[in-house]
Amino acid sequence: HTGERPYKGQDCGKSFRESGQLLSHQRTHSKEKPFPCTTCGRRFSWRSNLITHQRIHTVETPYRCLHCGMTF
């Protein structure tokens, strides 16, 4: 609760409270993409983006437009 941010990025100087946050942020500079799609091979920097992408390979449509009712 001290607000201390001891983990500082070498490329941009941005500071973080946790080392994992810094490691994740560093991917924006290194272009590292450690999360591959097992269906098409496309790679992603963040797991959440991979999960969203994988929906194009299924019929899953979790979002519904409140205006027209279409799902996507």
From TrEMBL:
Its main location: nucleus. GO terms for molecular function: DNA-binding transcription factor activity, RNA polymerase II-specific; RNA polymerase II cis-regulatory region sequence-specific DNA binding; zinc ion binding. Keywords: DNA-binding, Metal-binding, Nucleus, Repeat, Transcription, Transcription regulation, Zinc, Zinc-finger. It is found in: Nucleus. This is ZN397 protein. InterPro entries: Znf_C2H2_sf, Znf_C2H2_type. It holds the Pfam family zf-C2H2. One of its GO terms (cellular component) is nucleus. Residues 7-34, 35-62 form the C2H2-type domain. Belongs to the krueppel C2H2-type zinc-finger protein family.
